């Protein structure tokens, strides 16, 4: 049983909620457009199983991306003192590859089962994930490649996946996804700062390594402002209000240049956006709550650490 939970948490489930949130908001955006029929119900226990299936297959997709990344990032993770599974030999490399391939097969098959347009979007995510981590292409070690891979792969495309669940991909969908492209880009840049020393030691050139805290935070603050502006233009109240709530925290991090303030600004942005997803899809709150306490219990029992932390 302990090994089973190791494999489950090897997929980095703490990274799933931001993706789930944007998929939910993409579906919501397609649902409320003029002439669309109601999709989300107001009841917390009323379940649309086809939508739950979409979230499940999306979870498998991103889980495969994250496990593949860990396979090719062992030394960097060791330097940054995180993700013990491969670095400490808890899961073997061959087993990690087999698990990753299984996740990819389930995800792609499930995506095309839901719809052809969802399947193709899933395939794009998978290709981006491979290009990001594979040593031959190494997008993760190149600032511009890493930035755009994450902004598209965790921002714009998850929104389009949610939209494609209910409607065809259109120019309207692309325009409405821009606030998420900017917002997730900002969050990605933030995440390169706490790991600067470990990344630099292993030759990984991220924005945090190349630009330092000040310039990186200038860029993230600009991107949050752009997210707010484009959300206003797109009529996306969830992204607009979340950006307004998060902006003062990004400005504070820019002013102080303290890593704990950088981390806080990221958490505020994610939590604010997740709150709107819970309003639109109440069952999501129960999913987040259950996942949080399950993770806290596992990490405390397995590694004697308090993770994840809301604040």
Arithmetic mean pLDDT? 90
Helix run count: 14
Strand content: under 5%
| SSE order, one letter for each helix or strand | HHHHHHHHHHHHHH
Radius of gyration (Å): 19 Å
Shape: globular
Helix content: over 70%
How far apart lie the N and C ends?
30 Å
* Total count of strands: 0
Oligomer: single chain
Low-pLDDT stretches are none
Q: Mind summarizing the main beta sheet?
A: none
Query: From the 3D coordinates, which CATH architecture would you assign?
Result: Orthogonal Bundle
Top CATH class = Mainly Alpha
Within the CATH hierarchy, at the fold level, what is the topology?
Farnesyl Diphosphate Synthase
Task: Give a brief description.
The chain is mainly alpha-helical and 311 residues long.
How are the SSEs ordered, and which strands pair?
Blueprint: H1 2-10, H2 16-32, H3 49-71, H4 74-79, H5 84-87, H6 93-114, H7 116-133, H8 143-166, H9 171-191, H10 196-201, H11 207-234, H12 237-256, H13 259-280, H14 283-303
Helix pairs in contact: 2-3, 2-8, 2-9, 2-13, 3-6, 3-7, 6-7, 7-8, 8-9, 9-11, 9-13, 11-12, 12-13
Descriptive notes:
The protein has helices spanning 2-10, 16-32, 49-71, 74-79, 84-87, 93-114, 116-133, 143-166, 171-191, 196-201, 207-234, 237-256, 259-280, 283-303. It is mainly α. It has a single domain (2-303), classed as Orthogonal Bundle (Farnesyl Diphosphate Synthase), CATH 1.10.600. The radius of gyration is 19 Å and the shape is globular.
């Amino acid at each position: 049983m302990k090994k089973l939970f190791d494999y489950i948490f090897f997929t980095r489930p703490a990274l799933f909620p931001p993706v789930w949130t944007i998929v939910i908001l993409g579906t919501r955006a397609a649902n409320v457009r003029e002439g669309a029929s109601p999709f989300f119900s107001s009841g917390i226990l009323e379940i649309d199983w086809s939508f739950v299936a979409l979230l499940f297959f999306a979870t498998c997709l991103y889980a495969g991306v994250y496990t593949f990344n860990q396979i090719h990032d062992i030394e960097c993770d060791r330097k940054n003192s995180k993700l013990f599974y491969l670095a400490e030999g808890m899961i073997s490399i061959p087993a990690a590859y087999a698990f990753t391939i299984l996740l990819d097969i389930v995800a792609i098959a499930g995506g095309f089962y839901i719809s052809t347009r969802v399947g193709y979007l899933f395939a794009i995510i998978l290709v981006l994930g491979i290009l990001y981590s594979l040593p031959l292409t190494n997008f993760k070690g190149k600032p511009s490649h890493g930035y755009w891979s994450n902004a598209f792969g965790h921002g714009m495309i998850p929104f389009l996946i949610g939209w494609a669940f209910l409607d065809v991909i259109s120019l309207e969908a692309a325009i409405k996804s821009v606030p998420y492209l900017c917002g997730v880009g900002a969050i990605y840049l933030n995440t390169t700062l706490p790991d600067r020393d470990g990344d630099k030691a292993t030759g990984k050139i991220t924005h945090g390594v190349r630009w330092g805290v000040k310039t990186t935070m200038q860029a993230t603050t600009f991107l949050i402002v752009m997210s707010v502006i484009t959300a206003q233009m797109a009529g996306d109240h969830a992204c607009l209000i979340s950006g307004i709530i998060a902006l003062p925290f990004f400005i504070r991090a820019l002013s102080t240049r303290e890593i704990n303030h950088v981390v806080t600004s990221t958490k505020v942005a994610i939590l604010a956006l997740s709150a709107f997803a819970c309003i639109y899809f109440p069952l999501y709150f129960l999913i987040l709550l259950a996942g949080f306490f399950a993770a806290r219990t596992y990490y405390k029992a397995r590694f004697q650490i308090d993770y994840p932390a809301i604040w």
